[in-house]
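Risk register update: the risk that structure generation would not scale has been downgraded. Supporting records follow, first protein first.
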Amino acid sequence: KQWYQRRVRGRRRSLLRRLSKEFFQLIIAELFNPMYGMFVDIEDTRMVWFNPQSFEVDHNYKLIGMILGLAVYNTIILDIRFPTALYQKLMGEKPDIRDLIQSHPQLGSSLQQLLDYPGDDVEDVFMLDFMVSTTGIFGDTITHHLVEGGDQVPVTSDNKHEFVEKYKINLIHYISTLPSDTITTMIYNFQQVIAI
């Protein structure tokens, strides 16, 4: 009789564990639904990245942070393909160029080529300035100055490290049309749940 009771209790725990995982998977599938436009897929890596032109409010990102925190707290493994850079931000670490290469390989390798270029003619070869352009949700071009008057500041061999750092910060911290505190809101609520 005791053997049977232990076996039933074990099955109940297993069933509850599967139901918990399914519950989190259903919520995450709904929150990451392309219909809401909160996240976009990076084609090169099949990872998920924040949509810089999302119309969603911070409350939804707050919810995602709390749900991810609850999943971690309950040791539920979810199939979310965020780049390592975001996980580092969740843990309070600073992402670097390797993380940028992993999340956006084409862009990351281009920036790495700029850093590795040995010549003094960076300005003539790469023809870059401290300005970044992205395509908006309606097909319009959105420009971001990485420094004051960025369109007038050429990238040279003397300031190429500064350019890459500013570019990386621009991408990782989402200083495009995404509200600046969106990622902070998500991270804060994640950390509140798991008490980092």
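Supporting record for the second protein:
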Amino acid sequence: ALKASGLVGFIRFLQGYYLILIKKHKKAGKIGHHYILSIESTTLVPLFAETTFRNRDEKHFKDQFNNLNLSKDFYFSYSYELSRTVQQNLADALRGTAGERLRPLMLERDPSKHHRFVWNFHHMTPLLQKEGWQHWCLSIIHGFFACTRCSSFGWTFEVALVARRSRFYAGTRYRKRGLNVDGQVGNDA
């Protein structure tokens, strides 16, 4: 039996589709009562009967994909949308309690609810194409997360920092700063 913590999405090489699963995660901290988790290891599960045809090329592509270290600086939460600001999440929660029907974030066309920080958005497209399957979608962000408990004048509080990298304007720190011609930022904190 295969155990997994979450579904990153699907990827296709030469022979067919693979499921990208989170095998292991660890707690990175909390925002409110929502746990923020970091990916420790992933696995590829073939969704086809593997053959020896093109096996060498298929192995090369799998090795290339596995060289992408998803265990470094990738975060997710089961109950909190890390790809959006606290203000956006609170506004949606208030609208939801007021009875307004909210669409799943991945299907939103409203630019204020953009999913530019969801790094696995492309890998989720097979699930997004099916109505009602969006609950399987787990938003993964790439960036930095830190949470610490502070104390000042007898008050104890927690401070969390979430820095996210855009999937549209990604690159090394020295080459991607500021805005591109479409107004996309490279980083957001």
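The CA atoms of residues 69 and 181 lie 29 Å apart. On this basis the risk owner (M.S.) recommends closing the item.
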